[in-house]
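WARN no homologs supplied; continuing
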Amino acid sequence: MDKNELNEKELQLFYMWKGTFKKIFGRVIKDMSEHTGLSEGDYGVLGMLVEAGNGELRQQELAALLDWTKSRLSHHLTRMEKRGLVLRKSLDTGNGVNVIITHTGKLAFDASRPVVAMAIRKHFLDQLTNEDIELITKLAERTE
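OK structure emitted
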């Protein structure tokens, strides 16, 4: 068989893996949203601000870290600002904008972390054997 083609079994394996990931990820996001009111995007933005920026990042850098377009991030930040989770401040040089997590945003992020951890444990980690964990780890390390 040509390396540019997949047989039915290979294709089925890929779709199974993709579907399983989407199902698990969806359940984690659903649990988080129901218990915290944060969306996946909110959690991603707040997480990057806390973990990569110590509470503050340039908007352009945040877009790159999230792998979002500038437009998508700008629209999302507008919604987050209205909810008091972040604020944007023009740089003194007039060349760019910093995104800053607010006290409310930090509290929301901190409150969401245990919810996300419990959801990941429930929908993913508790389903795995030690052998599964070893195999997933090996696969992840190979594809980095």
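The chain has six helices and three strands.
OK
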